[in-house]
Structure of Bifunctional NAD(P)H-hydrate repair enzyme:
Amino acid sequence: MKLYSAKQIYKADQISIKKEEIGSNELMERAALQLFNWMHLRMQGAPVKIHLFCGIGNNGGDGIALARHLVDHGYNVEVYVVNYSEKRSKDFLINLDRLKDRKVWPHFMNSDDELPQIGGEDIIVDGIFGIGLNRTPDEWVVKIIQHLNNSKAFILSIDIPSGLFTDQGPDNFQAIIKSNYVLSFQTPKLVFFLPETGTFIEQWEVLDIGLDPEYLRVTETDYELIGKNEVLTMYKPREKYGHKGTYGHSLIIGGSYGKIGSVCLSSRAALHAGSGLVTSFVPKIGYSILQTSLPEVMVLTDTDENELTDIKFNLEPSVIGVGVGIGTSEVTIKALSSFLKSNKLPLVIDADALNILSKNKALLKDLSEDSILTPHPKELERLIGNWKDDFEKLAKVKEFSKKYKCIVVIKGAHTIIVHGEKGYVNTTGNPGMATAGSGDVLTGIITGLRAQGYPALDAAIFGVYLHGRSGDIAVESTGFQSLTASHLIANLAGAFIDLFKMPEPPEVEKENQQN
Ligand SMILES: NC(=O)C1=CN([C@@H]2O[C@H](COP(=O)(O)OP(=O)(O)OC[C@H]3O[C@@H](n4cnc5c(N)ncnc54)[C@H](OP(=O)(O)O)[C@@H]3O)[C@@H](O)[C@H]2O)[C@@H](O)CC1
Ligand SMILES: Nc1ncnc2c1ncn2[C@@H]1O[C@H](COP(=O)(O)OP(=O)(O)O)[C@@H](O)[C@H]1O
Ligand SMILES: [K+]
């Protein structure tokens, strides 16, 4: 699913109005009806108090139009206009008049002097600012926003939590509504998925207001949301006459004294991801451990007992996953440096290999083309330096990706895969995956996919999706706390099978089928 910028949404808006020969207020009416239907379906006329806080732009206009529908259906409504500017939008004014026709008089708020009382069981509809926010709100508006956040009421935001910029980082975190639910028009916004701003959204849903499908289809976006539909097109079926050679050979290079487990996890994950053959290259200390715990995996060893000192092997793998558990000792840095200098094979680079690259930036130019780097936030910071907000981070990663012709997997709650100017935002995974070794499993999965001939970008995107999906399947039986990295491997099979599961029909349809 594409993630459109505010500029693109406004463009879609204009094109739709022109093509359909409708007024902009008709589009607002569509939006308001969608909002109303969503609420009405869930509330079924319940006499709960609904406080609608509306700005003076089109987001506020949506709120005012929604208020009219709620009033028409007998809901218990209180409307407030947060009067932060004299420049009221045309469609806001049209809808304000329509509301007044129903003898509903909003409270106009020009300061934070009189903040309304809001009960814990009430509902707040947040229509103060939408995607038109272009500067930090005034202090008195921030106070109102704080007042709403401090209430115990359920907050439903129209389009985007008020105070959140669509395409830039926030400068005042106090000025943002903390939404329980966001009903976002046509497209979710990138900020819903970034670590700094994603915390302002508990749940979101897209309402289709029928913006011009042609424009939406042909318009390229900087970011895409990755779900099942997106990865299904990448999936490579197994061939009837395929043999283990068809599905590639993964070489996992890693480990040091006390950290052989990471290599076990990566190697096992590569196998479960479908790699035809898997070999692990470890210090001697890892030999018996791997041979006993993973009979399917072949093992090569360094000349040193405890750490990697000389990475040499007599085989031609399809891809190499390097870095898990290697440490950053001088000898290992040397071994990795000379390996990278001579290597031409595709790479997946993780953990301490990334830390070594960070300390020895000259090595970055030795990476084979389309190498996949999988840093967690701390490793990323070492690699690209710190950032002022998530947008600066993304811009820096894009530059890095272009400069070194590599793919960067920014791991986190919504992992983002960056390739040049484009970012792919993953939707699977859960906080249970914040556990030791979880990243080692991801390295193995991506390596295993790359071995099977998936292009680098597909391997990174599909690998991240599968990793998260197996976490989501695992958590159903482990709970968040007890999920371990090994569960992620055990449930990878389920993640593959789930790709081809038909979606469950809604309950209503199931009942109809039975009758
Ligand atoms: N596009 C679509 O498909 C559809 C969109 N729809 C809805 O429209 C919403 C966008 O509406 P919008 O453009 O009127 O902007 P909105 O967010 O209401 O802000 C209002 C104005 O406030 C101003 N302003 C900005 N920051 C400020 C600040 N800190 N303090 C004070 N003032 C500030 C700024 O004007 P300025 O003062 O800069 O001239 C801005 O224009 C969108 O989110 C959705 O809900 C639907 O109706 C149907 C179809
Ligand atoms: N809250 C979360 N939601 C979803 N995925 C998460 C969350 N926390 C961590 N993960 C995933 O778990 C993995 C953790 O990787 P990493 O920090 O390298 O772990 P380790 O070094 O222990 O192997 C990443 O793939 C990350 O995206
Ligand atoms: K809003």
Observations:
- Residues 2-219 form a domain with the Rossmann fold fold (CATH 3.40.50.10260).
- The pocket of potassium ion (ligand 3) is lined by residues 59, 126-130, 157-160, 162 (CB under 6 Å).
